[in-house]
Design brief:
The protein is mainly beta. The chain contains three helices and 14 strands.
Length: 296
C-alpha cells in the first residue's frame, strides 16, 4: 500500500477595512487572517502492495536516508509550510516504510512529498529491491482500518476482510491558522485490476480529530470525541479502495498504469482534493494509516 498526499492547506479569506487593521479589539481576528494567508503543504503518497515482480525503469525517485529517515523532518520540513506548527509526531512501522519522493518525472500527478508504503519504499521504483513483507501478525490488526474497508458496499467480499498487516501509521498534532484544511493525495495499488471486489482490498485512511469533530474512529486522549475519515471519493461518504475506484466504478478518478513505466503500480487515482472546515487557532490531530488486508 502506498499513499501520496500533497498541497494540504489551511486558509481563511476575508475582506478587512483599513480602519479595522488598527483596532486592538480586532487583533486576534487579524492575527488569524494574516497567519491564514500563509499556506502549508503536506505531501503524501499511498499505494497498495501485491507481490508481483517489478520490471522496467522508473522515473520516480524515493529516499529514506538522512534527513528523510526522520518522521519529525518529514512532517515539519516536507509536509508543513510556514505558519503551521506540529507536535507529538510519531511513526509506527518499519523505518523503510516511509520517506521522501520526487514524482516530477513520473505520471503519478504529484511533484514531491512523503511516501508511505506497506513494504520498502525502494520497491516503488520499477526494478527496485527491498522487503516486500514484514510478516506482522494478525494480532496487530487495526480495528479502525477494518471498519473502513468493510464499509465499501460495492465490494461483495468486504465482510471477508478481517485482518491487516504491514501497518504504516503517521500521527501528529497541528495548530490550525485558518478555517479550512485542504489537501491533495494519490492512492495507488498493484492489486489493480485483478483483485477488484475481492477480500484483498488493502486500506488507507486519513483520520482527523479535534474541536467540532465527532466520529466513529479512535482518537488520542486529548481529542475525546473520536475521529472522521476524510480520505473519501469526492462528493460521497465512500472510502477509496480498488473496489470503489476502478474502470467500472468512479472511473473518472482512475488511471490505468499496466506498463509500470514510471511508477511500479498497476493503477492509481487521479489527484484527489479534500477540504474540511476547522476552527482558527485550535489544535487538531491527523493520523495517516495504511495497511495490507488479507494477503499480508
Amino acid at each position: 500500500l502506498k499513499l501520496y498526499l500533497t498541497n494540504i492547506r489551511e486558509y481563511r479569506t476575508a475582506r478587512i477595512s483599513l480602519y479595522s487593521l488598527f483596532e486592538s479589539s480586532n487583533y486576534l481576528f487579524l492575527l488569524c487572517v494574516l497567519c491564514a494567508i500563509k499556506q502549508f503543504l503536506m505531501k503524501l503518497f499511498i499505494a497498495l502492495l501485491l507481490f508481483l515482480p517489478f520490471m522496467g525503469t522508473s522515473q520516480i525517485n524515493v529516499s529514506n536516508t538522512a534527513p528523510y529517515n526522520s518522521e519529525q523532518y518529514l512532517v515539519e520540513d516536507i509536509l508543513l509550510g510556514n505558519g503551521v506548527s506540529a507536535s507529538n509526531i510519531t511513526f509506527s512501522g518499519e523505518p523503510t516504510q516511509i520517506g521522501f519522493f520526487n514524482g516530477v518525472n513520473s505520471n503519478i500527478g504529484l511533484d514531491s512529498g512523503v511516501v508511505m508504503y506497506t513494504a520498502d519504499i525502494a520497491t516503488i521504483v520499477p526494478g527496485g529491491v527491498g522487503t516486500d513483507d514484514f510478516l506482522t501478525p494478525a494480532s496487530q490488526t487495526d480495528s479502525d482500518l477494518i471498519t473502513v474497508v468493510q464499509s465499501v458496499t460495492s465490494n461483495p467480499s468486504a465482510n471477508q476482510i478481517t485482518e491487516t498487516h504491514d501497518l504504516a501509521d503517521l500521527n501528529f498534532d497541528f495548530q490550525v491558522v485558518g478555517d479550512t484544511v485542504e489537501f491533495e493525495f494519490v492512492f495507488a495499488s498493484d492489486e489493480y485490476l485483478t483483485y477488484v471486489n475481492t477480500q484483498y482490498n488493502d486500506v488507507f485512511s486519513f483520520f482527523l480529530s479535534g474541536p467540532g469533530i465527532s466520529g466513529p474512529y479512535s482518537s488520542p486522549a486529548g481529542f475525546p470525541n473520536g475521529a472522521v475519515n476524510v480520505a473519501l471519493i469526492p462528493g460521497t461518504t465512500d472510502p477509496i479502495t480498488i473496489s470503489s475506484v476502478h474502470p467500472g466504478l468512479n472511473s473518472q478518478y482512475y488511471i490505468d498504469n499496466p506498463a509500470n513505466t514510471t511508477v511500479s503500480l498497476n493503477g492509481f487515482t487521479t489527484v484527489v482534493k479534500v477540504k474540511y472546515p476547522v476552527v482558527c487557532g485550535e489544535n487538531y490531530h491527523f493520523r495517516f494509516a495504511i495497511a495490507d488486508c488479507g494477503d499480508g
